[in-house]
Predict the structure of Rrf2 family transcriptional regulator.
Amino acid sequence: MAYSTEFSRAITICLLINQKMDEYGFEFVSTNTIAEFLKIPAPTVVRILRSLNAAGLTATKEGAKGGVLLAKPIAEITLLDIFLSVEHGSLFKMDIDFLIEDSRIDNLKSLIAGYMEDAEIAMKESLKKTTLTDIAKSL
């Protein structure tokens, strides 16, 4: 299973919200503003914001002056936080089925699953080390 584009879009959305919070003096950023700036369909932005909000990364406000803000400083938001908010399930799905039943095949499946799990753990450890501040400083 490949991850969706939601992860990269969620990172970009958070960075844009931070930029607009700086520009607007911490006013809420509208969903339409985010959709227009990033050329992402509004329903997709809403879905991603729901996930970010549920994870406590954003705060929303309804109404004419409503929109979204980051719920904490970008120095405290890691790529892993964003990843876990929008992606659910394992990186790799094992769906290997053989016609032959043999303990060696079961061992092979277990071995492959172990390597895949190790790779996913390493990826998550790497994401945990990077904050949005690290990315913003590179811009």
The longest strand covers residues 58-61.
